[in-house]
Amino acid sequence: MSLAEDIESTSPDFADDASRWQAILNRDPAADGAFLYSVRTTGVYCRPTCGSRLPRRENVAFHRTPDAAEAAGFRACKRCKPRDEPLAQARAKSIAEICRFIEEAEEPPALGELAALAGLSRYHFHRTFKAVTGVTPKDYATSCRSRRVREGLQSARSVTEALYDAGFNSSARFYATSGEVLGMSPTAFRRGGHGAAIRFAVGQSSLGLVLVAATEKGVCAILLGDDRELLLADLKARFPRADLSPADAAFEAVVAMVVGYVQSPAQGLELPLDVRGTAFQQRVWEALRGIPCGATASYAQVAARIGSPGAARAVARACAANNIAVAIPCHRVVGADGAISGYRWGVERKRALLACERTG
User: Fold this and answer.
1) Residue 18 burial (CB < 10 Å; 0-12/13-18/19+)?
2) Please, which of 68, 102, 204, 231 could form a disulfide with 211 given CB 3.0 to 4.6 Å?
């Protein structure tokens, strides 16, 4: 799924009355367009972000659409105009169209060109784009080209052909950043990781087995499971032709650090990481590392922290794409109501990790 599609489908689910009421108290922009509320004593229905005086909870009812609110006998608020399209939703649609334009462009469009398409000044467009997507227009264009390179390297006749097809005017320009984009040289990536040296080792923890793997840049995978062979098969699937080798004694110490962190998270875990993902995923993963041990944050809160308050679902997908358990603590992200769900390595492991962190 592209970021354009993510933007159009990332309003959080305010599925229960408690989360809806909390959104009203916070005047949460992410709730605008998700539901409406009516006030029995005034006969008016409003957006969750309406600036009117907050009503008493016992006088409030919730509605999915303006038609539903009016069918219940309420009239539209003249202040927040709930029948108009929410500003955040209109802005998201506009930026989604710009993202598609960037994705389809042969070369990265100039900022002025993009701003003109959006009908905004360069400054306002740059600020709006970053607020919606979490990245700058330039970073998003670079991410799109990098993705085309990764796809092109699988089918192009040569590395050079793939680079030029992706819109890089100079191969030297791409090679200067290829380690960040691919995690290895373009030639090695094209060969499925052939020649990339990856060390790995498996340790035992209270949560089961822990496989830790690293390139020369840093840890590239921390996988949790119960079967050593399945964990190794997972690693091989990620790097089908890499040079995988059991770790030496020095690397065993890294595994011991990871296992020790699982057992006693308060001690912290500082490891060099070799993390690969889109610009948006990178921002999410960096935000996850900022959540303190023993604390949690909702998907909507993480989205707000990276400057994309409407991107809760995209944040959830970035968490699911995380390959480095515990070091990038996606287990600290919970539902809006605090519910523990959606962990790649099992909900019970997520619950156990959080319980261990909270008890010290």
Assistant:
1) exposed
2) 231
pLDDT in tens, 8-65: 444 456 778 998 999 899 888 778 888 999 999 999 999 998 989 999 999 999 999 9
Which of 63, 64, 59, 57 minimizes the C-alpha distance to 25? 57
List, for residues 81-118, the tens digit of each pLDDT value: 998 877 666 777 788 888 888 877 777 789 999 999 88
Please report the pLDDT score of residue 40 as a whole number: 95
Say which residue the tokens 């649609």 belong to.
Answer: 93
Question: Taking a C-beta distance cutoff of 8 angstroms, is the pair 144, 4 a contact?
Answer: no
What is d(CA 175, CA 160) in angstroms, rounded to the nearest whole number? Answer: 10
Which one of the listed residues 46, 50, 77, 319 is annotated catalytic?
46
Which phi and psi angles does 260 have, rounded to 5°? -65, -35
The rounded distance, in Å, linking the Cα atoms of 132 and 280 is 11
Assess whether 293 carries a catalytic annotation. Answer: no
Q: 78 by DSSP, 3-state: which? A: coil
**CA–CA gap between residue 234 and residue 237 (Å, rounded):** 5
Q: Please say if 356 is a catalytic residue.
A: no
Q: Which of 144, 319, 330, 356 is catalytic?
A: 330
Could you tell me the two tokens for 302? 């993480």
Q: What are the tokens at 279?
A: 């610009």
Query: What is the reported pTM?
Result: 0.55
- List Cα–Cα distances, 296 to 172, 304, 324, in angstroms: 43, 14, 18
